[in-house]
Amino acid sequence: MGYTTRFGTQIVDYWPDDDETTLYLSSGHLTMADLIHHAKEHFGDDVKIEDIEVSAEKIHTHCIYYDLYDASDYTDFVVLTHKKQNPIVGNA
């Protein structure tokens, strides 16, 4: 989604974009089964769990350009990153 402006205001929000190797899940009560389900759904059913890195990020998602710190302007994410293997390019 990237950056958006709330309708009728100048308030700018941000939401991270998923891509081919990264999936952002706004954290809540996620179980390991939830993480595996989301990984397979995003990266494909044949993804190997050992190829997925799990990390946490606190990202500023609301009221981006306001000066004062407000903890509620941040969202906690569980980030799943697929460590893609580089293909072997034959023997020299």
Key terms:
single chain; 92 residues; mainly beta; 3-stranded antiparallel β-sheet; two-stranded antiparallel ribbon; 5 strands; 13% helix; elongated
In summary, what is this structure?
By secondary structure, the protein is mainly beta. The chain contains 1 helix and 5 strands.
How would you describe this structure to a colleague?
The chain has 92 residues and is mainly beta. It has one domain. 13% of the residues lie in helices and 34% in strands. The protein contains 1 helix and 5 strands, in the order βββαββ. The strands form 2 sheets. A 3-stranded antiparallel sheet has the order 3-5-4, with helices on one face. Strands 1-2 form a two-stranded antiparallel ribbon. A hairpin with a 6-residue loop joins β1 and β2. The N and C termini lie far apart (44 Å). The model has no long low-confidence stretch (mean pLDDT 89).
